[in-house]
Structure formats: structure tokens, C-alpha cells
Amino acid sequence: MEIEPVTPSTPRPVRRPTLVQGWHELTFLHWPVEPERVAPLLPSGTRPDTLDGVTYVGLVPFLMRGVGLGPGPGLPYLGTFCETNVRLYSVDGQGRRGVVFRSLDATRLLPVLVGRLGVRLPYVWSAMRLHREDGRLTYTCRRGRSTGRGPRSRVVVRPGAPMAQPTPLELFLTARWGMHVPWHGRTVHLPNEHAPWPLHRAELLDLDDELITAAGLPRMTDAPVSVLYSPGVSVRFGTPSIARQRARCRQVRGQVRRAPSAAR
Questions:
Q1: To 5 degrees, how large is the angle CA 160–CA 162–CA 165?
Q2: What is the C-alpha to C-alpha distance for residues 199 and 60, in angstroms, rounded to an integer?
Q3: pLDDT, position 71
Q4: How far apart are CA 3 and CA 253, in angstroms?
């Protein structure tokens, strides 16, 4: 069975949205890691998704806006908050690529509770802030609001010019059209769709992070191999389905399909 190609737009359009969100002011930081190091951290029925034999760990801070059920509209206050996620990349027995979240820190308690109880995502209620000044973005996160003793993260970046076209690696890391989530002993695939990412190069000015190791991953001692910024996209989620484990998948030839023009 073939693994679906990496495409700048979803291969599975969402017909009836179950959830809407806006992902804004995102920074993507990524490090390469051996697939065998992260395979035990993925839900059953999935395995690490790789590009040229390598998989990746992502640290992604951003501003969530307008979370809402069904086709929307999203909530202007309760649905707007800062979030930072630590994520891995997966593929299931049907060949669907996805994201596996190892942790999601967010500043709004209600979305944290809904995410943990309703979708079984590893949300944590944390203190976070996004500050923009002199062309720089500073994301801060402190887990453990009551004690102040939890892991912390600080990311400072300077976004650059828009990219003419993403590389195969940048497309692989950002064009993700679903997530894999453990659900009562099974694994479900929750699809999403949005416009192609408007990506910018970005310069990493400072990084002090404890969230990656707190998520059970090895410490990233080298600089990230990819630093990207995006002003954001509006997102629609579809209906979840069971991820069934099947025979070994193989990647299709020319697995990464470039956008025909600039990402937008």
C-alpha cells in the first residue's frame, strides 16, 4: 500500500467541519531525529513518517484564534489564546500522514479541558505570552501555573521575507492534513484542511526550551535545521476515523509535490 504524497493542499477535503480554528503568528522549529528514537512514543497503528530516512521533532509556538464547534463562527474570547506544541510526524496503515502531539501548552483553561477530555489530546494549562517588538516575536511559556516549577520555554525569532516556494523538507514539515490521537485503546485520524501555508524564512535569535525533554524526547543540543514563520491560516477539522494497522506501506515515487507557485 502506498503512502499518500506530501501536497501543499489537503488530499482529503473536509465536507462537514466538526471544528474550526485559526492558527496565527506561528514559528516552526525543527530538529532531525532517528525514527527508532521516537517510534515508541507514537500511538498504535502508526509509525514515524520520514523524509530521506529521517524524521523530525517540532516545537511550534503560536496564537490560536476563533476556536469553535461545527462550521463556526469561532468564539472571540474563549477561543483565542497562546499555545505551544511539541510534535512528531506519523503515518498510519492507510497511508495517511499526520501529526502526533506530545504536549500542548495553552493559556485558556476551558479549551485545555475540552481538548483533554473530548479529544484526548495532552493539553496542559500553562502561563504563556506572545510579544512583538522591533520586528521580533518572543514566545514565553511556563508550565505549572500554581507552583511555577514546571518546564519553561522561550523562543525569540525575527521573521524574514516571504518564501517563493517551500523546499521538500519545509513542505514535509508543514503540509500536514491530520493528526493521530489515541482513543480508548485505538488510534483515530482527525483530518483538517486549510489554505497553503504562507511561509517566511525566520532567524532564531534566542532559544531556551525545556518542553521537548519534558515530552519524553532527547535533548536537542544542535541548532534547528529549519526555522520558519507564518502569519497563519484558518483551519477546518473533519470527522475522525479509526487508523487500522495494515501491511507495510511504501512511499510513492516523488512523494513530495511542490506547489506550482509561491506558497500563499
A1: 130
A2: 14
A3: 77
A4: 10
Q: Check pLDDT > 90 for residue 238.
A: yes
In terms of pLDDT, which residue wins out, 248 or 219?
219
Q: Quick one: cell of 154?
A: 522561550
**3 state SS for the chain:** CEECCECCCCCCCCCCCCEEEEEEEEEEEEEEECHHHHHHHCCCCEEECCECCEEEEEEEEEEEEEEEECCCCCCCCCCCEEEEEEEEEEEECCCCEEEEEEEEEECCHHHHHHHHHHCCCCEEEEEEEEEEECCEEEEEEEECCCCCCCCEEEEEEEEEEECCCCCHHHHHHHCCCEEEEEECCEEEEEEEECCCCCCEEEEEEEEEECHHHHCCCCCCCCCCCEEEEEEEEEEEECCCEECCCCCCCEECCCCECCCCCCCC
**pTM for the whole thing?**
0.90
pLDDT digits (tens, 9 = 90+) for 120-137: 899 999 999 999 999 999
pLDDT tens, 242-254?
987 654 555 544 4
Measured between alpha carbons, how far is 194 from 76 in angstroms, rounded to an integer?
20
